[in-house]
Amino acid sequence: MRWFRVGQWLIAFILLVSPVGLTQPTHDEFNKLLQDIESLKAGQKAIRNDLQEIKKLLASRGSERSPIRDIDTTLNVSETFFKGDKQAPLTLVEFTDYQCPFCGRHVRETLPKLEKDYIETGKLKYVTRDFPLEAMHPLARKGAEAFWCAHEQGKGEAMHSRLFTHQQQLQSEALERHAQALGLDLPVFQTCLASGKYTAKINASLQAGQTAGVTGTPAFFLGYTQANGTEIKAVKFLSGALPFATFKDHIDKLLDVKQ
Asked: DSSP assignment, residue 116?
């Protein structure tokens, strides 16, 4: 870290006292360099936080309950974001955190396979619910708000994917850049993000997860679609960034029972 700071000062010095014959950087170029340095610092901090989270997870692994267990609970999934057929025979509910590295791994490695084999074929409804762990991930809630503000403009799914692709860029300025990249109406997005209009919705999602027994992310509830797609009778709880084969095994078994 000490050498990183020395490097910052050296770069600044070179730019401010440029040698004869070299073009003096513009004010915008200098500000861009400072922003890049701040992004690097934020990235380093995010990596340290992720490592601490992994250490805590490994330390507590021995005392945790099984990551997969039978349950019998009913979850309300009305007014939630979902992919697939609303009345698909099975529903999988994910409680997620946009700053959680394990959630990111699930989105990148497992979700595309679930989409291809089960969601797009009408066998599975996939529900995403917010569960920002703010004690460990202070930017996760703002990421959730950014998702809902993008959803207002019909770009919720695109924002969901982009946030998990850029998990170290969840600061307010970065969220605005994501909105621009997706072609959103930026002033509308900024007003939405600053208003806190989705605070109650995110809090309700957190409460629902806590009531159902969620303590970490990602957490999944798998079961039978009920009541015209507004409820799920969950019979399996799966915790963590589990491999696709694990989801496939449990989904196929429930589909066999359903038939």
From this structure: I
**Cα of 242 vs its chain's centroid, Å:** 16
The radius of gyration of the chain from alpha carbons, rounded to an integer in Å, stands at 22
Q: Are residues 40 and 126 in the same domain?
A: no
Helix (H, G, I), strand (E, B) or coil at 137: coil
Q: What is the DSSP string of 153-183?
A: TT-HHHHHHHHHHTTT--SHHHHHHHHHHTT
Are 198 and 181 in the same domain? Answer: yes
Give me the domain span that covers residue 224.
67-258
- Give the chain's domain count: 2
For residue range 115-155, what is the model confidence (pLDDT) as tens digits? 999 999 999 999 999 999 999 999 999 999 999 999 999 99
The closest alpha carbon to 80, from 241, 183, 208, 210, belongs to 208
Predicted TM-score (pTM) of the model is 0.76
